[in-house]
Design brief:
Blueprint: H1 3-59, H2 66-79, H3 82-86, H4 88-109, H5 113-117, H6 119-154, H7 158-161
């Protein structure tokens, strides 16, 4: 055989190996990002399950604060809506609204010392704070995976093949109002 044929075969084999390695690396990163997003949705749902109990506990003491309860309920529903659970940008927007609504709820609760001292309220607050910490940790893990995947997709020569292999950049999970999640909501005694 002619040397040119061997060179062509070598180039084809190297290109095939490159595509194989690139595809497998991108699949591994995509799976990691999907898994991280799943972790976030689990924590968002867990928190959403806690909020009705929190509302009912506060409502027992401050039943006249109807608007606050409605705002928290709407914000809670937005965080577990299909749009929010599928799209990080929507989830970030919903997160900011929920944090603001929860701050209002906790501000109302501060006016009722008996409520703030109740064991049920304190336990709900502890669980909510724990869940908020888990959401933040899952968010950092997710955003780290997205950063790695997006970097891999954008790097040359991967950028030439990534879209043809079915990969595209992913959105980061960023809250619209970073001050809203600076720290979990707390109640002061």
């Amino acid at each position: 055989m002619d040397i040119a044929i061997w060179v062509v075969i070598g180039v084809v084999v190297l290109l095939g190996l490159f595509l194989w390695v690139t595809y497998n690396a991108l699949v591994a990163l995509k799976v990691r990002v999907d898994e991280a997003w799943s972790d976030i949705t689990v924590q968002l749902k867990r928190r959403a399950d806690l909020i009705p109990n929190l509302i009912e506990t506060v409502r027992g003491y401050a039943s006249h604060e109807k608007e606050v309860f409605e705002n928290v309920t709407k914000a809670r529903a937005a965080t577990v809506s299909p749009e929010a659970l599928e799209h990080p940008a929507q989830a970030g927007k919903a997160e900011g609204a929920l944090q603001g609504a929860l701050k209002s709820l906790f501000a109302v609760s501060e006016a009722y010392p008996v409520l703030v001292a109740s064991t049920n309220f304190l336990e709900l607050q502890r669980e909510l704070t724990d869940t908020e910490d888990k959401v933040m940790a899952a968010r950092r893990f997710f955003n780290g995976g997205v950063r790695e995947l997006n970097t891999k997709i954008l790097q040359f020569p991967n950028n030439v093949f990534a879209s043809n292999l079915g990969f595209s950049e992913r959105e980061f999970f960023e809250v619209e109002d970073p001050d809203a999640i600076a720290e979990p909501p707390t109640v002061k005694f």
